[in-house]
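Q: Is it fine to ask for two folds in a single conversation?
A: Yes, each is treated on its own. Send the first.
Q: Here.
A: Result:
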Amino acid sequence: MYDINNNVWVDPELSHEIPRWYHSAIVVPAIPSWKYFVFGGSIGNFEEGGNRTTSRMTDDAYVLDIPDIKNMKWYPINIVGERPKARESSALFYDNNDSKLILFGGWSNNWLGDTYSLKVSMITGPPYAIYNITPNMGPLTGKTKVLIDGDGFKDTNNIIVRFDSHSKATSPEVQGVFISET
């Protein structure tokens, strides 16, 4: 992996209990850290360069959070609903608008032409992150300006800031003002 912060190549200690090949993979931008998704492929134990007769195709999915190259760990993804057939060599895309992984085709003892989607918004999160709000509390009367620090903010004409009060059924909203992406 290339570490852009330190301008060096790093060989991370990254294991996935069982060797995997011919899987589909994609790196997805997310805030605060990018995610690396893998789906399917063939798994099994064999000597490098040896015969793969003990391998089998799989239909599992995993995600790797990439904030810290030295402490990476794979997390399984629970696929809800109809599962794609176990396969290898499929195409994997990311739909940024709907936060979905799109899986197309692949090989499962014949070439497949099917398509599946998997919503991953709970993993990738929204396109922005809030790190701090100053002041973090204010008077019940309102009318206190707040500064929201974060990342990924966009300059649009429709910036809405919603305040939550556990004692009221509704959450008041006010028009926000864009200052910068952070």
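Q: Second one now.
A: Result:
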Amino acid sequence: MTPDRGFHLTAVLTAVRWNELRLLLVSVALLVVGLLSTSIAVKPDHLLDLVSLRPAIAPAFLLVCLTVVWAASGMAASELILPTIAMLLCTGLVLIERLQVDIGPPGTALAGLSGRHQLYVGLAIGTLFTTGRWFPFWKATRRYKYLVMTGSLLLMLVTLVFGTERYGAKLWLEVGPLSIQTSEIIKLGLVLFLAAYLHEKGDLLGATWHVGPLSLPPVPTLIPLLGVLAISVGLVVVLDDLGTALLLFGITLTMFYVATGNGWYVGVGLFAFAACSWFAYQRFGRVGIRVANWLDPWSDPFVGGYQQIQSDYALAAGGLLGTGLGRGQPEAIPAVHTDFVLSALMEETGFVGVSAVVACNIILLLLGLRIALSTPILYERLLGVGLATTLGLQAVIITGGVLRVIPLTGVTLPFVSAGGSSLIANAVAAGMLINLSHRVARRETVL
């Protein structure tokens, strides 16, 4: 009996994804240290307030269970993706818990912010668990690509008619106590549609007619793609949402370039988007206000430019190492838990903390592109690029907006900002990317 026990124990220990587990424990350690640091800053008389560690219990347990179950089920995906996401999730948990003290006292609208965020993080980890290892819908999403895209368009139309406006943009559907940001669902539908469509039309994407130096596919092949681009611009005009428009446009252009390898399309697409954005800036007030606040927030320091100015102060106060968790003034920024969470991070952890978060997003993007490059199948390659671009481009857009490289938009920082719709949708995207990595490693085609 003893040899059998030894054999089974050895098999279990061999199956454990040790690199993934060790890196996850680093993320959990960061979460524990961050929560204790915040507690000490807020309540200096209670140096070891272990109650403050309660937000770390459920995520730590779920993450460890996740990697153990994955290992036992023969998971073959990259061992770096989940720890990178866990690092971002833990950073977000610490930040939201710290912000709760100043922006969500009892009796205010954000009083339950921390509790809701912990719930959403738990749901996001559960989504990663199921989608990352078991995603049986690849064939269905490819076969019914037009239904997927039609559903996304109908969801956009319903939001346009029945949606709730917040922060000047009409992007939310309220169903009872639930509030859903539908643009988070639409971006996933777009990736699934484009991957299936461009794979199916791959043989037709070669040039058949010419316009000057441009070699174009047949017109019927271009119509759905042009329709997607038109919808992207329409978001700017109708929904007043520059961020989602830029995200959908970037996803479309990137995947189309991967499918064709033609750089002319990128140049023409960027020129067209720039022209339409200029038109929107000239004709629509909210877009003009965003651009004005980007160029000179001091022209309206108490209303339009207030948030950007307070964000700039926070960025300047951070320096190299920051003021320390709990020792900044993030409450001065009205949307600090969503659009400006990076400003709060900079103020209290400095350039070092922001650089770590940016590095995690870069690593996540590179891992996604590596998965895409590891498969010779166009559909899998397009999926990998599309999902990685979805996560990476969001980080680029919001980081650029906070640093005033581009006008600020309503896109959240993936896995860090508060917002249930964003957390769950990004978890689905990351889970599909992990599942694709597993299938590519095992050479199980998703077709």
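Q: Anything structural to flag on that second result?
A: Two points. The mean pLDDT is 84. The chain has two domains: 2-134+287-442, 142-283.
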